[in-house]
Amino acid sequence: MHVFEKEIKKLKKQFPKLVENLAEKGMIWISWPKGSSKVPTDLNENIVREIGLELGIVDVKVCAVSEIWSGLKFYRRKK
Question: CATH assignment of 2-76, given 3.40.630.30, 3.40.50.970, 3.40.930.10, 3.40.50.150?
Fold first, then answer.
């Protein structure tokens, strides 16, 4: 699953639903516009990570998806 988002409010609304539907060994990529992209956003890596951690999932990888988008990969915490 890969979600592209520009707004905290929208991400906070849809992220819980994504986690709820996440398979036990599934993953979620969340992408946001890079600061250098000039695309208006109120998201950054730390905010996306914090939202995920609050929902009980953990980030395991960060990457440059494109010249415009960065991404964090999340998994469920191992029990």
Answer: 3.40.50.150
